Every structure is written in C-alpha cells, then in structure tokens.
Amino acid sequence: MTDFTSLPDLAVRTLGGSVVAASDESFEEKENLINPWKPEFQPETFGAKGQEYDGWETARRRPDENGELGHDWAIVRLGLPGVIRGVVIDTAWFKGNFPPYASVEACALPGYPAVAELADAEWVEIVPKSPIKGDTEHPFDVTAERRFTHVRLNMIPDGGIARIRVHGEPVADPELLTGLTVDLAALENGARVTGCSNMFYSRPDNMLAPGLARNQAEGWETARRRDPGNEWAIIKLAAPGVVKLAEIDLTNLKFNAPAAVSLAAIDARSSSLDDEDAWFDLLDRTRVQPDGRHRFRLAGDREVTHVRVDIYPCGGIARLRLLGDLTAAGEQELTSRWQQLAG
C-alpha cells in the first residue's frame, strides 16, 4: 500500500463534498460519512432509534420475497473531482453493527447531474468487494488513471460505516480556467504543496483550500521555532503562469501569526528546485499583522511553475491565494492532462 493519505481528501465536506443519495439511513445520516473530524463516540447516548453514532448506519436487512438480501449504498459527489489514488473506509466505533464487506465504485459525469442521472452513469469498480472489520480504518489503493466526479460506497449487506476518505489529485476543467485570471495556487485548480519545513500542527495544503478558514486547524501552522532561520512551504502551481497578486490570509492566527512573510518563484522546467540561485523574489520580506488578510500586487511578469512562501520565523497561514494568468504553455499543460484523464 502506498501512502496516499498525504494527498487531499477529495470527498471531505470542507472541500465541497456532499453525500447526495443513500439507499437507507434509518439510524444515522449519510452526511456523517464525509465530516472532516475524526469519528466521535459517547457511550450510552440513546435516542429514539437506539445508540447514537457519528457515522452512517442503516436498518437490518431481511430477505425479500425472492430470498434476495441486497445491500446498502451511498453516493458521494467529490468536492474536488480528480484522480483517486486511495480510499479509506473507517468503521470507527461500529463494533457489533459493521458490515462484513464493502466495495467502492466511481463515475465521471459533466456538469451537475441529478441523482437519477447518476443511476444511469457508467460506474467503475475502484475497490472490489473486500472483507472489513469493526472499529478499524481500512485503506485501499486505487489504480484507475481517470478523473472521477462521484463515488458510490457499497456496504454489504447493511450496518454502519463512520467515514469514507477519498484521497487523490484534483484535476481542473481547463474550460473554466483558460483565458481568465485565476488562482494559480488553488487546490481545486490542481496546485499542491510539494515541500515544507514544518507541519507540526496542520498540513500546508490547507492554505490552498477553497473558502475561508474557520479556525486555526483549517490553515497551516508550524511548531514554535527555537533555532535560527525560518519556516517555508513550496507550492507547485496548477500550471505555468504569471503571478500578479498575492493574498496572504492570517485570519484566526491571533497569537501564532508570523512577524513577516516573503514570496519567491522559479521555473522548474529549466532549473532545479534545489538551485537557490534560480529562485527570484516575488515579494520581499514584508511585515504582516495577526488575524487579517494581506493583499500585495506583484510587479513580476516572468513565467513560473513553483512559488515558495517563507514565514519569519514561524507561525502559520490560513489561506494563500496567488492570482494570475496561465501562459500558453500552462493552458496546454492543463488541456493535455484533461484529455488524458477525462476518459
């Protein structure tokens, strides 16, 4: 098994995921499957339907008149459509009511399909029917080299599943990006953090997530630095482009904000990321203030593939936006990837 869990969870609610349909949710709601927090449990909390769980739980199935038992399912719309590298099926706290087997399918439909349209989609099995245990995280590698928009979780025949995590690489539709000024650092456009000096409290990919951070945990935060130097993160842009405006958002970082920030850039197609002389400044070291957004217009006009954000000496960033224009090479790169993976 590869370590796909370092990749973004394409299905999590905070990145726009939604559970659009389920066969049954008699005990616990289908929406719990994609909650961002770890499953919680408080014993002896009984409601009208029984013990309460932080997950999805269905009624006990019984054979129909033909002796068929069937199985339960839930369809998740990915918040960030992309290539799925791995799935985690988590049965946390379900110890006597978990399903003995599970499988996962995926499909890709354009636009915003209704549930009825999803029923007629071409579903591809990405996790075959597999035995699962109670109160356990089950990781499964996925090898399908395709862009998907939805997944269908099958639990066979019934029971409870706490979470499904769908880790992968977002793949943006070039039709929504080409010819426009866009956020070249947005996770949903295909940008990723490829290097980081410290992520003690939270991952730097959080900086690139859509929307506003609601608390410190939804941004990037480092440990307190005790030696000389500073912390940094390197962002691979969605595609080659020219960065014209930077927004560094320190909202919620009231006592953990850095004292200053800077931005440097490089074109990694012609230079190594390890070549310090190849990096050039986009934003000189600049003082910043806690708990607020900072916007800087950049004068550069050079095509770049990566941007490094340095924070002095440590702290965190809630969100980082790098607005700019794709170059011709960038548009071609996005289009080629789309054609290769759209299926």
Automatic annotation (TrEMBL):
The keyword Hydrolase applies. Keywords: Hydrolase, Purine metabolism. Residues 16-170, 190-325 form the Allantoicase domain. InterPro entries: Allantoicase, Allantoicase_dom, Galactose-bd-like_sf. It is an enzyme of class 3 (hydrolase). Its EC number is 3.5.3.4. Pathway: Nitrogen metabolism; (S)-allantoin degradation; (S)-ureidoglycolate from allantoate (aminidohydrolase route): step 1/1. It catalyses: allantoate + H2O = (S)-ureidoglycolate + urea. Transmembrane segments: none annotated. One of its GO terms (biological process) is allantoin catabolic process. Signal peptide: none annotated. It comes from the Bacteria. One of its GO terms (molecular function) is allantoicase activity. Belongs to the allantoicase family. This is Probable allantoicase. It comes from Actinomadura barringtoniae. The gene is alc.
